[in-house]
Write a structure and sequence with these properties.
By secondary structure, the chain is mostly helical. Helix content is 58%, strand content 0%. It has helices at 12-19, 23-36, 38-72, 76-112. It starts with 11 loop residues before the first helix and ends in a 51-residue tail after the last helix.
């Protein structure tokens, strides 16, 4: 628990949704782990995501042709099922990719660098250790990103270059 966490506990109405895995949370974890040591992980993470995107691009024409054939045969249900099934599967595949990449980067981070704890703040009268202090501070302009001049010297670059 962090400072003031009890004030923001989750309403029971939302607990089941918040307990599930979802892409925003998984890819945010991936961003945080990758941003901690971008030189070690950035190109591999981007390469894996771009390879996944290229795979989807390469299958697009076939999916479109099959759907078009269904539409032309007045089989709208089959066309919709084909498209919906493909999108659903690819969304699940992308979530799995995010989880796999995060697990890999987290494991390598722990092995190579360890997990860095927060520096914390020395507030008058506060006795909580840094890891228990509120995670948000007054520096709202500090954004987490993986930008590094050395890593991005090749921009603009061709999509898939890191695959």
């Amino acid at each position: 628990m962090t400072s003031n966490a009890a004030a923001g506990f989750l309403d029971q109405n939302w607990q089941h949704q918040e307990a599930t895995r979802y892409a925003t949370r998984e890819f945010k974890r991936l961003l945080y782990f990758t941003a901690e040591h971008p030189k070690a992980f950035y190109t591999d993470v981007v390469g894996a995501i771009e390879a996944f995107e290229q795979e989807m691009i390469s299958e697009r024409e076939t999916i479109e042709q099959k759907a078009q054939a269904h539409f032309e045969a007045c089989n709208v249900r089959a066309a919709r099922n084909l498209i919906t099934g493909n999108v659903e599967q690819r969304l699940l595949d992308s979530l799995q990719l995010g989880m796999d990449l995060t697990d890999r980067v987290e494991t390598e981070t722990r092995t190579q660098f360890g997990i860095r704890g927060p520096a914390g703040r020395d507030e008058p009268g506060e006795t909580a250790p840094p890891a228990s202090q509120a995670m948000a501070d007054d520096a709202l302009n500090d954004m987490v990103n993986c930008y590094d001049d050395d890593l991005h010297a090749d921009y603009p670059r061709e999509h898939g270059r890191y695959t």
